[in-house]
């Protein structure tokens, strides 16, 4: 048996696994390989669609040796089988007037609907240009009312932080218990199914992967329920104070210094003590 048999680490990507300006941190990659050689399993939990991970983490298929949580918990994706294993959709009908009201009141923000392995938008707005440029076949432009239904993973509003503050407040005032409004960045507010969060998918992931102890690590608001749902959790030095205050949270170094490497070192020290 390896030292890390039965242990799963689930990591957020931006601000946790990746360093500043989205750089890959060599120490993280080296420790993950050693962790896996010792029987450990590593994967990611991200707000991104699975295909948007590749530009930032080209070796994602190599480093994820168990399925990943994508789209902030809308589904679990197997990067080796190239298929979704568990998938949850939004109840989209009640959202149409909410999206329209928020979009009209927050003109400096744009919105996108994640579904069918694509992003659906009404217009190409500034924060969406990079998706259009990188994945033109994934950008679909059409009126909200004409977008496909019954297959929505999430709705995201992107824009200047002050405009997103306003959008978030409006969403929280209008959404009922079927939905969650989460902030996945200063410039992003999202609508998700209350049944689909990173935290709720952890139990399914642990079951699918046959893990014994699951560690989760993340830095932002959309990681909170994942951290409190894990067996153990860790927060990088750059993480929100709200996350650092979680009882028992392991404090690790800044994401740019190798937060994942630091967590693996911490786990190894505990196991050898």
Description:
This protein is α/β, with parallel strands linked by helices. It has two domains: 7-87 and 196-272, 3-Layer(aba) Sandwich (Rossmann fold), CATH 3.40.50; 95-193, Hypothetical Protein, Haloacid Dehalogenase-like Hydrolase, Chain: A, domain 2, CATH 3.30.1240. 32% of the residues lie in helices and 25% in strands. The protein has ten helices and 14 strands. A six-stranded mixed β-sheet has the order 8-7-6-9-11-10, with helices on one face. Strands 2-1-12-13-14 form a five-stranded parallel β-sheet. Strands 3-4-5 form a three-stranded antiparallel β-sheet, covered by helices on one side. A hairpin with a 2-residue loop joins strand 10 and strand 11. Helix 2 (26-37) packs parallel to helix 10 and helix 4 (95-105) packs antiparallel against helix 6. The model has no long low-confidence stretch (mean pLDDT 96).
Identify the notable features of this structure and list them briefly.
Rossmann fold; single chain; 273 residues; five-stranded parallel beta sheet; 2 domains; Hypothetical Protein, Haloacid Dehalogenase-like Hydrolase, Chain: A, domain 2
Task: List the topology elements.
Elements: E1 7-11, H1 13-17, H2 26-37, E2 41-44, H3 60-63, E3 68-70, E4 75-78, E5 83-87, H4 95-105, E6 110-115, E7 118-121, H5 129-134, E8 139-141, E9 152-158, H6 161-174, E10 179-185, E11 188-193, H7 198-209, E12 213-217, H8 224-229, E13 232-236, H9 241-244, E14 250-252, H10 259-272
Parallel strand pairs: 1-2, 1-12, 7-8, 12-13, 13-14
Antiparallel strand pairs: 3-4, 4-5, 6-7, 6-9, 9-11, 10-11
Helix pairs in contact: 2-10, 4-6
